[in-house]
UniProtKB/TrEMBL annotation, chains A, B:
Top-level taxon of origin: Bacteria
Family from the record: Belongs to the class-V pyridoxal-phosphate-dependent aminotransferase family.
Keyword Transferase: yes
Phylogenetic lineage: Bacteria, Pseudomonadati, Pseudomonadota, Gammaproteobacteria, Oceanospirillales
Xref: InterPro entries: Aminotrans_V_dom, PyrdxlP-dep_Trfase, PyrdxlP-dep_Trfase_major, PyrdxlP-dep_Trfase_small, SP_NH2Trfase/AEP_transaminase
Source organism of this protein record: Maribrevibacterium harenarium
GO biological process: glycine biosynthetic process, by transamination of glyoxylate
Name of the protein described by the UniProt record: Alanine--glyoxylate aminotransferase family protein
PANTHER family: ALANINE--GLYOXYLATE AMINOTRANSFERASE (PTHR21152:SF40), AMINOTRANSFERASE CLASS V (PTHR21152)
GO terms assigned for molecular function: alanine-glyoxylate transaminase activity; L-serine-pyruvate transaminase activity
Domain Aminotransferase class V: from-to ranges: 34-212
Keywords: Aminotransferase, Pyridoxal phosphate, Transferase
Transmembrane segments annotated in the record for this chain: none
């Protein structure tokens, strides 16, 4: 039983990535009680901070105590009654996840798909909505499995026109790519901390519009053992999960402070600090930092003679897919980067398994030194595998991006 | 956006309580990747440590990423198919919670109840099992709402006799009261960190016997997007939750390391350290420390002329219910303790609301100084409310317990 001792990895995969040191410090804070005014004040402050992160006025903005997929499941099982139609446009692994979670809720799940490496045009989604008339549109913004960023700005208006609730998961993209809850008329959004927000997995911020809240609240049910006479029964089909019952979780985060779970205080402290890190640096500056780091990594990869994956016009700023060149052992490269240089890059899933690496530039690691370390280490490891490249070209190209950005 | 600043509370309620400082330190550790050998080694080590905490040989011993009720829901929704009979003996709020979670899974839920402040005799449970013939018996070991500790040692044999799966939640009791998974033939147990284990809420250790694992595995289903040709479909009714699908979570913690959620690494570091704290101090010594602190608090309370709640033969070591005396404003006492002395004690739920306080002595706070501070502060606050007591009697009685223990 030795003390925890971990190697100093530089995490340049698709997430999780290294936490901001301030986030780690915040998570070492001693607890107070869950209904202590000091705690409930921080709960309220965290709600306010995430309204700013999500760019929303939504009152119902808080944390789900679990990893990012806990947020997804909470949103979907709380709104989807058995038999409800949901449309899931799929452009990567996480689209399948949304569909699967909705299926398990016994929703009537309809999917449309584009090949991995592409995104949907709004017209494709509108056509499917007209045809299917779903209660909910569920789509991810950024899918790390393909590195693609689905444009969402036109979908809210389409959803309003056809009276569809618009849900999106922005775990992979938030903080590194624009996200506008209110402007885009998003009805519910969930995220995690472990990508561009620079925290650990384990807390899932969520924000819900009044329309979405209404759809959930009609299923409201207070649990036996803490139910008082003024609590009335549910109108809609009872939400199948207690843990993910957003109606009850709203009561916990609301004025009534009705006991549900015991808030995961350490994760709340971490979540709060992620928001503070983003907002005190400035949302626009953080976005620009991610765009520069992502472009520098992309240009560096290309300068090394490597080919990026997918439709680059729709790539997330914070991750790039890189084809593993012929004759190169992709797993050996990852192994060498990890064991020689303490640098982690990502492998891939499903149809891309064994075909591409995924290299991230997220949160704390969206930094010039992290980009340069990664490019020169990748060059060294590839050279030792016999892959020939122009020496130093990756780093030079990345530095040129930073120089241009500095001049601009 | 000021740095996180919390008052130095002494948390003497029914939990959460103050974390061990070593646990807080562990949670400030920088991350590594989720499939990094350094990470998976710690995952394996954490499994081994919790086998020792649970006193079991069960291979399937790991963490659910959520608060303690996430563990409860994972166990129940993974084993209970719609229509399956479950027996829930209820002796407090958390019994209702088990029943409610099982109801939401559309199980056929049968309950038996004893008044708050009592526990069940094994014969009562056996009689109900014979009558109902459930697939699962679900019962909590310690229910903080009543402070009672249900004896479990005879229930495993009864469950085996009638081919019932025996599930228990030991969140409130583990670490402060004996728990013997294998000796008691428990098929599944879930806990949280925020009581006697001295960590924060947000991680739920679980252990499952082979019988329980078998009942879950027949419902095994690998999610689309990561499914390979060698993954076959489910045999039993598909588990309704993706997040709480223990069959998939076993694949993630097992050799296949099949991607499910992204492990909440910070909570894992905290969970591991809770186990290390318990096991390096020694399980028997930690139990004795809780028993002494709990007895000292009880004797102190009685010496102050206050009346403890419930059947003291079956009280958990780590929490005592205390009747609020006539003429005393219970909430004012709690307010004064918090704001004058930075000490938190607990209020109550349901039928006990407004009638008793709950005072805990758990984990890091199962210490003589914490007991004495609480007793003398309670005395001061009560005296200022006009309640008359023999001066210093609470502290004297508690010190006598510690003196006896030291001599013994």
């Amino acid at each position: 039983m030795q003390p925890l001792t971990l190697p100093p990895r530089l995490l340049m995969g698709p997430g999780p990535i290294n936490c901001y040191p301030r986030v780690l410090q915040a998570m070492a804070t001693q607890l107070v009680g869950q209904y202590d005014p000091a705690m409930t004040d921080y709960m309220n402050e965290t709600m306010a901070l995430y309204r700013r992160v999500f760019n929303t006025q939504n009152q119902q903005t808080f944390l789900i105590d679990g990893t990012s997929r806990a947020g997804i499941e909470a949103a979907l099982v709380s709104v989807l009654e058995p038999g409800d139609k949901v449309l899931v446009p799929i452009f990567g692994r996480f689209g399948y996840l949304l569909a699967e979670i909705a299926e398990r809720a016994d929703a009537d799940v309809h999917t449309i798909e584009v090949p991995w490496g592409e995104v949907f045009a709004p017209e494709q989604i509108e056509e499917a909505i007209k045809r299917i008339r779903p209660k909910v549109l569920a789509i991810v913004q950024g899918d790390t499995s393909t590195t693609m960023l689905q444009p969402l700005d036109a979908l809210g208006a389409i959803c309003r026109e056809y009276d569809v609730l618009f849900y999106t998961d922005a775990t992979a993209s938030i903080g590194g790519n624009p996200f506008e809850t209110d402007k885009w008329q998003v009805d519910a959004v969930t995220v995690g901390l472990q990508k561009c927000l620079g925290g650990p997995s384990g807390s899932a911020p969520i924000s819900m519009s009044d329309r979405f809240v209404q759809a959930v609240r009609r299923r409201h049910h207070v649990e036996a053992g803490i139910r008082d006479s003024h609590h009335t029964g549910a109108k809609g089909a009872r939400i199948r999960s207690n843990y993910f019952d957003l109606a009850m979780i709203m009561d916990y985060w609301g004025d009534e402070r009705l006991n549900h779970h015991t808030e995961a205080a350490t994760m709340l402290f971490g979540s709060r600090e992620c928001a503070v890190a983003l907002l005190s640096e400035g949302q626009d500056d953080v976005l620009a930092r991610h765009q520069t780091a992502g472009l520098a990594m992309l240009r560096g990869i290309q300068a090394l003679g490597l080919t990026p994956f997918g439709d680059l016009k729709h790539k997330m700023s914070n991750v790039v897919g890189v084809y593993i060149p012929d004759g190169v052992d992709g797993e050996q490269v990852r192994h060498d980067l990890l064991h020689l240089f303490n640098i982690e890059i990502g492998t891939s899933f499903g149809p891309l398994k064994g075909k591409i690496w995924r290299i991230g530039t997220m949160g704390y690691n969206a930094r010039q030194d992290a980009v340069l370390h990664t490019l020169q280490s990748l060059e060294t490891v590839l050279r030792r595998q016999g892959f020939s490249m122009p020496a130093g070209a990756g780093v030079d190209a990345a530095m040129a991006v930073y120089a241009g950005q500095a001049q601009g």
